[in-house]
Protein: V-SNARE coiled-coil homology domain-containing protein
Amino acid sequence: MAENNAGGLYDPYVKRGQTGTAEQGGSRTENLQNEIDSAVSQMQRNITKVSERGERLDSLQDKTDNLATQANGFRRGANRVRKQMWWKDMKMRMCIIVGIIILLLVIIIPSVVASKKH
Structure:
């Protein structure tokens, strides 16, 4: 059922008790244009934010790649140092073993030779 708005046709955009004049039509168009402008500006801000986010993600990806490269270099260096320390430890152990053998030979050989003379 259509209502009459002060003698005019029913207009859902005109509030009750107001008449649909040209001034209100312009006001309605201005309101719609303002809403469209605000929506466009919001979309532009969103696009800018998405672009900035993409740049930050690219920067983060670069940093991640650099960190992975540094981690691989560190791992290789750590393995090299570990092997060097193992060889150093082995050399020290071999020197101690040879020293003990020489010491035992110095003690045992003269005592064996002395016991054979008697």
Summary: The chain is about 80% helix and 0% strand. The two ends are 142 Å apart (CA to CA). Residues 22-117 form the longest helix (96 residues). Confidence is low (pLDDT under 50) at residues 1-6.
